[in-house]
Please model this.
Amino acid sequence: MNILIFLAPAAIFMGAIGLAAFLWSLRSGQYDDLDGAAHRILIDDDE
Model:
């Protein structure tokens, strides 16, 4: 049971880091154009 003293805060800390990374990606515009890459692969540019 003593290991829970270390595991619970570690899990909360890692979850907070994941949440911070997700919020950073939202603010930096990572999810703005989800369809752009899908449509660019279909365009036939013979240059």
In short: The two ends are 66 Å apart (CA to CA). The chain has a mean pLDDT of 88. Helices lie at 4-27, 36-40.
